[in-house]
DNA sequence: CCGACTGTAAACCGATCGGTTTCCTCTGTC
DNA sequence: GACAGAGGAAACCGATCGGTTTACAGTCGG
């Protein structure tokens, strides 16, 4: 049976392209950009031939997999656009999701920060994609901070971004197991920014 | 003239071992662990033959270079053991040094966090060395927090470590240029921990 | 039943890399 | 000056990797 088919007679459960993107996202995350293309193809159940006619190069696949991952990641860490509670709760929601993810086994930090750190080249296509995602997160914090009436919304947003990346990094390298640390820290900074609600 | 000699007739200015460790520290930092051994040897002015009789493997050289770097790094970021001002100023001193380093061109984040992130393998010898250095920093924060009479010294120490790594990471990937952000954030957390002095 | 097409499996290619070895030059010693 | 040792330059080796190509199996429209 051809891999990727759910059952005989049905259409492909997932396209070769999606399987490749998923496998790439996971393996690049777990093993870093050094993972051989053969491994990616084997896990995805796709031949190298197909991979190279779907993507120009390994680097292009890496960038595409980060791009592909973005909607799911932001959706899982950012609250829905018009969620009930106020901006304070919406900001803290992000850190609750982070703690949740960091607690699960196999957590290795933020995939986008990790990619940028591992690549060490801001001009790399994948780095550009990662930077855009990280930027979106900063924008979210800034918008909420402004809505909440923070003394300096831009400062608070950057502070929260620092806490997010610091907590993710330290959890990812096993230097801390968080356990409320990110939420508590973000909360303290939000308080210090003059937000009471 | 043989590289590494300061002038004819004098003894070697630096040993081949030290030149190798310095070159490794810089190139691993700038290019990541993927840097070829030939490049390391060329920059160090040492033959591969000598390198491999000084170090067992490339990985061993990486670990040794991180170990070699540790005293200088901690000395440059931690205040002298019995510096005049109180614990609050001593903690903030670390973040001032961080901002200073992050402002210089070519800054790519904390070398130890970067190594652990890039290697993605906590059991790697270099990761173990890096973890030890990061741990030393956490211990410094905890000791100072306790001296300062923080409500929860362990919590404050972990918070400051998070801010340190977050600020270093974000500055390293070009997501933020700090400019007081680390100091201001650390200061806010220290205040929130009930330290007035 | 046929030919065009799609995609897999696998051989293949050239380059690169970690690590070893060979050769030779330079140095210091007696 | 002979000689031993250290170390640099560079060839070399086997493995791996990114990427290409060939060969073949399955599928679909006619």
TrEMBL record, chains A, B:
PROSITE patterns: HTH_TETR_2 (PS50977). Keywords: DNA-binding. Coiled coil: none annotated. The keyword Transport does not apply. Residues 14-73 form the HTH tetR-type domain. Pfam families: TetR_N. Signal peptide: none annotated. Gene3D superfamilies: Tetracycline Repressor, domain 2. It comes from the Bacteria. Residues 36-55 bind DNA. One of its GO terms (molecular function) is DNA-binding transcription factor activity. The keyword DNA-binding applies. This is TetR family transcriptional regulator. It comes from Streptomyces phaeofaciens.
């Amino acid at each position: 049976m051809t891999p990727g088919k759910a059952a005989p007679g049905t259409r492909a459960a997932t396209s070769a392209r999606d399987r490749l993107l998923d496998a790439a996202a996971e393996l690049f995350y777990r093993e870093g950009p050094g993972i051989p293309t053969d491994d990616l193809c084997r896990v995805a159940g796709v031949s190298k031939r197909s991979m190279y006619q779907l993507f120009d190069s390994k680097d292009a696949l890496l960038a595409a997999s980060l791009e592909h991952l973005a909607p799911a990641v932001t959706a899982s860490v950012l609250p829905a656009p018009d969620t009930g509670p106020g901006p304070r709760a919406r900001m803290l929601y992000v850190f609750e999701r982070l703690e949740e993810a960091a607690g699960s086994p196999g957590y290795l930090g933020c995939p986008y920060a990790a990619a940028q750190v591992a690549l060490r080249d801001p001009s790399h296509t994948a780095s550009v994609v990662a930077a855009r995602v990280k930027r979106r997160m900063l924008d979210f914090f800034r918008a909420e901070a402004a809505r909440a009436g923070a003394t300096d919304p831009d400062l608070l947003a950057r502070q929260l971004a620092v806490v997010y990346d610091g907590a993710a990094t330290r959890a990812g390298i096993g230097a801390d197991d968080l356990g409320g640390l990110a939420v508590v820290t973000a909360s303290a900074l939000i308080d210090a920014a003059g937000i009471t609600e």
